[in-house]
Structures are given as C-alpha cells and as structure tokens.
Amino acid sequence: MNHIAQIRQKLTENDLDALILAGEKNQRYAAGFAFTDGLVIVAREKAWLLTDSRYIEAAEKAAGGCVSVQLFDREHSLTALARAALREAGAQRVGAEEESLPHARYLALEKDLELPLLPAQHILNELRASKTEEELQYMVRAQRISEAALAETLPLIRPGMTEKELAAELVYRMLRHGSEGNAFDPIVVSGPNTSLPHGVPGDRQIREGEFVTMDFGSLCGGYCSDMTRTVAVGFATEEMRQIYDVVLRAQLAGIAAGRAGVTGREIDAAAREVIAQAGFGPFFGHGFGHSLGLDIHERPAANPSGDTPMPAGAVVSAEPGIYLPGRFGVRIEDVMVLREGGSEVITRAPKAELLVL
User: Fold this and answer.
1) What does pLDDT average to in each consecutive run of 10 residues of the chain (357 residues)?
2) Segments of 172-209 assigned E as strands
3) pLDDT at 149
4) Cβ(324)–Cβ(283) under 8 Å?
5) Whether residue 300 has a cis bond before it, omega within 30° of 0
6) Phi/psi at 93 (nearest 5 deg)?
7) Same-domain pairing of 27 and 120
8) How far is CA 4 from CA 42, 46, 209, in A?
9) Residues facing residue 289 across a β-bridge
C-alpha cells in the first residue's frame, strides 16, 4: 500500500515540484515501507526510495514498483543520490517535513541538497487525517488482535498480581495473536494508581474491591489500535459503579456527536457536558480523543481546542475519564471512524456494564 498518487496531486495544488520525506512514518505512508535511515522523494512524474544494504531487499519487495529503489553506500552517498533524483525531476521548489523532523536534520538536508526546503508538513497532515478503506482494514485487524488479547487476559487478573505482570500478559498475548509490536507502552494501573491517566505499570499488587485500568494497542501493517477498559476485582462499591456509568454515558454522547464536518471541540463538548452535569467536571482534564493511524497520536484531535472540522475517514479515539486524585479513576476507550452521517465504532470489546472479575 502506498499513497504516491495522492501526494502527487498535493504537489500540484501546492505549487511544489517534489516532496522529500525523512520521517519514518511519512516514508511508510508514501512508499509502503518504513526504515530508520534514508529518504523518500516524490516528484510529479517519478518517486525514489533511497536506502542502505540493511533494508534494500525488503524495500524492493514492499515498494512493488511504485518507486525507484536505490542503494546508497560508500561509493554512492545518500546526498549524491538525492541530488541526482531532484535534478532528474527538474525540481526547484522542494517541500519537507518542518514539524516532524528535528531542526538540525532539516537544516542539514538543506545544506546537503544545496537548496532551500519549503514547509510542507501540512500536506502529510491533511492526507493522513482521512484513512482509506485499505488503511481502515489494517486498523480493524489491529483492534481485533487487542480484543483477543484482552479476552484471554481478563480471566488471569486476580488479587496479588502486579501491574507489571498484567501488562506483560497483555503484551505477550497481543504478539501471539499477530501484533507487530506495541502501538505504545501499555498503561496498566490499579487501585489509587487508576487516578493517573498515563500511569506506568509498577510492582503494586492488585487488591480486591479495586479498579484496574488497561490502556493498550496493537500494530498491523504499521497501523495502530487503541483501547481502554476499566474493570473491578472482587467487588465494586456503589460509588465506583456510579462513576463508571457517568463515564460510559459521556463516551456514548461523544460518539453520537461524531461525524464528518463537526469540529473536535463539538465532539468533546458533548461528552464533557455529561460529566459536568454529574458533578465531576473538574476531574476530567484531558480531551475526549485523538486521531490515530501510523502514529498513535495524529491530527485532528477531539478536545476543547479542536476547531478543525473532522474529515470523512478520520479515525478518532473516544476516551473520556473521571479521575479522583489518590482514590481511583475510570476511563473507557473505543475507536470510531467518522462518516458523513455519523460515526462507526470499530471496537467490539464489551463495556455496557462494569465488569467485576
């Protein structure tokens, strides 16, 4: 899978002759192959993938004829190959990733290529914000892997198990079901640690009458899944059940508000209002959700600052939460695809009632 044609169209629209990509995720988006060094250059008539001996064979297989794969080495430097490609394309106006590249790398590229690079990050941001059906298929597969891992892990949760042990079980089972790795470092916390939205798994042992929050994701074809489930161990108090219910209703309200054309702020507000009306407004500090794809956090976001209309095909997390400092927290997260007429939730893991293990 590659997006050379879509990038070429954007070159014309933005009066660019070529786009040079050094960021790993943007290289994968463009040419269908990810690597840590090298460049992808997309011009109006031709595209090049420049890599070294570690990746040349895999790159040739993955590129599938969409780009000219070239090997750089001691005799043929990366800079020399890039200059030759740009000369062949007759490229004068060349764009680059001014946001995702370290500033020093950006300046080094300008110096090596002996031409000024034009800011063009917005091209990748716009294209990657709306997923194709092929991209969505990878994301659905990644989600199914995560759900299978969760289903196998839930029966293992018991008092005395540590957060690290539980995190390890999830990761192991995601890999067994085909994940290419973690979409991000899993968040697995218990008891008072569940009030930390981005808590880190530790040696704390799970106890009866506590919440356990698991936030994790798989990778398929380089694309991420993301989900959170909060469960109780042994028993749950009435207060725990009440807050779980508020969070669930808030999530459903945000999902109902989601569709192409609305802003992220509007989606966030629908969920935030439910939590505020229940009296827990001060305890929901983060946004309702974020876009995801090749990266776990992409644009646009569904938060109070999100004034960008959501495009059709945007994949957005739905993850409101309530966090009572030092006591406990609840977060429920699904992933939804925004369509013209509404949202499609691709997460299937149960959530309608608090699960007590």
Assistant:
1) 93 96 93 86 95 89 83 92 95 93 88 93 96 97 98 98 98 98 98 97 98 98 98 98 98 98 98 98 97 96 95 98 98 98 97 97
2) 187-190
3) 98
4) yes
5) yes
6) -100, 105
7) yes
8) 7, 9, 53
9) 302
Residues 165 and 78 in one domain: no
* Residue 33: predicted pLDDT: 87
What is the rounded radius of gyration, in angstroms, for the C-alpha atoms of the chain? 23
Which two three-digit tokens encode residue 343?
Answer: 């949202």
- Pairing type for strands 47-51 and 68-71 reads parallel
Three-state secondary structure call for residue 49: strand
Nearest to 134 by CA among 35, 3, 260: 3
Give dist(CA 327, CA 206) in Å, integer. Answer: 14
Residues of the domain holding 274: 133-345
Classify residue 41: in a domain, yes or no: yes
Confidence at residue 60, expressed as pLDDT on a 0 to 100 scale: 87
**Rounded CA gap, 3 and 24, in Å?**
14
The beta-strand segments (E) located in the chain are 18-21, 39-43, 47-51, 68-71, 94-96, 117-119, 187-190, 210-216, 219-220, 223-224, 227-233, 289-291, 298-302, 315-318, 321-324, 328-331, 334-339, 342-345
For the entire predicted model, the pTM comes to: 0.94
Distance CA 63, CA 183 (A): 23
Residue 187: what residue type?
Answer: I
Which pLDDT score, from 0 to 100, does residue 92 have? 94
Shared-domain flag, residues 117 and 215: no
CA gap 315, 199 in Å, rounded: 24
Helix or strand holding residue 165 (H, E): helix 163-176
